[in-house]
Amino acid sequence: MKQPAISLIVATLNRTDELFDLFESLAVQTCQDFEVIVVDQNTDDRILPYLETAFAMGISITHLRNHPANLSVARNIGLKAATADLIGFPDDDCWYEPDLLEQVVKRFSAADAPEGVGVRWEEGDAPAINAYQLTWTRSKVFRDIPVASITLFLQMKLFDRIGDFDARLGVGLWFGAAEETDLVLRALQAGALLAYEPSARVHHPVGPPVGGSQGLVAARQRARGTGALWAKHDLPKWVILRGLIAPLLSPLLQGSLGTELAHGYAEVRGRLEGFLGWRRMQS
Q1: Whole-angstrom distance, CA of residue 169 vs CA of residue 221
Q2: How far is Cα 51 from Cα 191, in angstroms, rounded to an integer?
Q3: Euclidean distance between CA atoms 149 and 121, whole angstroms
Q4: What confidence tens digit (pLDDT) does each residue in 233-277 have?
Q5: How far is residue 188's CA from residue 118's CA, in Å, rounded to a whole number?
Q6: Phi, psi angle pair for 93, to nearest 5°
């Protein structure tokens, strides 16, 4: 059986109709040289009809399971099953423009031979972003890291050099974010060339921020991931200080002494917890 050009690893939990939208966008790709590895983190069979529909559309599907749910672990399971040289990580609620995979394959074949390609997130990227080449020098001070996992395509051989996703970081965990940023930082430290291809576009809805106490808890949990990155990558002290001051200073300067200040305090608290928690874990 011919090896596909791209393996797409989809970790899914509690979604159904959104999966159909993703599969529908994959079925009309101008490049059909791909496989989809679905890592199912549900405790029931809710997605089976959608997998059957994808198969009927002509999509090559591999169905795996992971319990308990852990996004980084699920993606690592998918990596072990992947057979292609290029790897992508679509969310279970995103969808691709019809020529996205074609543009990605073309960019990897360019003369500069990148080991990673970031594509444009239509709803999330700033309009001014046209091109970039990420560097460790700027990324370690938290400049120029405009990548989310849905926008990231990497060569499989890069994972052989830097390892898989860190299963201690990610959605739902105590260190509740930053697994893809950690991966990018490790790639840059290893000297990988990561480039941006604005003509390749992915869609992902941007929902309204969660309000109330639930939103503050979520912000604090996500912020622990940022703090963990500070400690894990031994980032400069001034970067850490800036990261602790900015969430409070911005609402104070704007006179936003209510919800925004409370959100900033939750972020600062979470970042400090993540930084100290990671250091304790390593001691």
Answers
A1: 11
A2: 38
A3: 10
A4: 999 999 999 999 999 988 888 877 788 899 999 999 999 999 999
A5: 13
A6: -135, 30
Provide the pairing of β-strand 6-12 with 86-88: parallel
The pLDDT tens digits for 171-227 are 889 999 999 999 999 999 999 999 889 899 999 988 766 678 888 999 999 999 999
- CA-to-CA separations, 35 to 6, 26, 82, 91, in angstroms, rounded: 6, 10, 8, 15
**H or E stretch covering 108:** helix 100-108
Residue pair 185/237 in contact (Cβ under 8 Å)? The answer is no
Tokens of 29: 């790709």
Q: What domains are defined for the chain?
A: 6-203 (3.90.550.10), 212-282 (no CATH)
Sheet holding 86-88, edge to edge: 61-65, 34-40, 6-12, 86-88, 152-155, 116-121, 194-203, 95-96
Cα–Cα distances in Å, from 140 out to 6, 49, 66, 234? 29, 44, 32, 9
Contact between 99 and 196 (Cβ < 8 Å): no
Kindly report the CA angle at 185 between 93 and 272, in degrees rounded to 5?
Answer: 85
Phi, psi of 120 (to 5 degrees): -85, 125
Give dist(CA 88, CA 163) in Å, integer. 16
Q: Measuring CA to CA, which residue among 244, 235, 231 is closest to residue 281?
A: 231
Peptide bond into 68 cis (omega under 30): yes
Over the stretch 3-34, which tens digit does the pLDDT of each residue have? 899 999 999 999 999 999 999 999 999 999 99
pTM: 0.93
